[in-house]
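User: For this week's homework, look closely at the record that follows, marking any run of repeated tokens, and judge whether sequence predicts the tokens.
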Amino acid sequence: MIGELYDPRKEFGKIVTEMAEENKNIVVFSADSGKSSGFGDFIKKYPKRYFECGIMEQGVVGMAAGMAATGQIPVFCAIAPFVTCRPYEMIRNDIGYMGQNVKLVGRNCGLTYSDLGSTHQSLDDFGLMRLIPGMTILAPQDPIEIQEAAKAMIAHKGPVYMRIGNPKIPQLFERRPFIIGKGERLKEGTDVTIITTGSTTRSALEALPILEKKGISAELLGFPTVVPLDRELVRASAAKTGKVITVEEHYIEGGLGTLVAEELSDIEHNVLKRIAVPMDYGKTCGDYEKLLQYYHLDSQGIAEAAEAFLK
């Protein structure tokens, strides 16, 4: 139901458990966070396909890569920085270099582990994972898209990193197939292009009526796939509006904004503004909604930034 709130972790765990009934090759790895990742039912139904390894993420990545080499499809889900930062070398060598079919899922991404501060927040995961050749990066935007992205992730041959949040999120879209590498024009516009991904899409959608009241026609592009970037959609919209804003719950360097900047670097007369978290540890501990406001990632902040940008 459009607007109803869902727990992203439970939606993810539920769909993987459903797929595991048909696909006997799906196995799940945990680093002491299986139930928190939504795998309570999976543990009960498929105890021999669930591997609880304790807090040893580097070892989990190595075991998952080894399991993938036998034809299994390992899914490893944990708190985002513990999936990406802590075992980075093992992901680069055991999964990336070896081209293993492992699915990494970072939950509680971005600022959503708000009260635990910088150690538990993940504002660099896009940047880290995009530097691994062959790694696909997904950031679904609502609970239904999380389910469809999980299906696409399992069907895809090769390493995938997917980020999901922590707070309950509303359903924004009707169910539709998830095509890796494709963005979507969520609203037509002529004055400015707003490109968003993951959890920030909700705020960007809420910013549109604020901008409309000010006479600003914004085109909104939603990108549930960060890598590979939908280059054609970026370039087509940028050519139409001439001004582009990227919005993401990530550091300003290395993520969606950087990818878009690289794509537009050879197009004349285009102007780009990136709305993201500054490259600093800074004030990153507190209430989640207040942190979004502080970094101008809420609807009002996005609208104000767009208006100022156009002036």
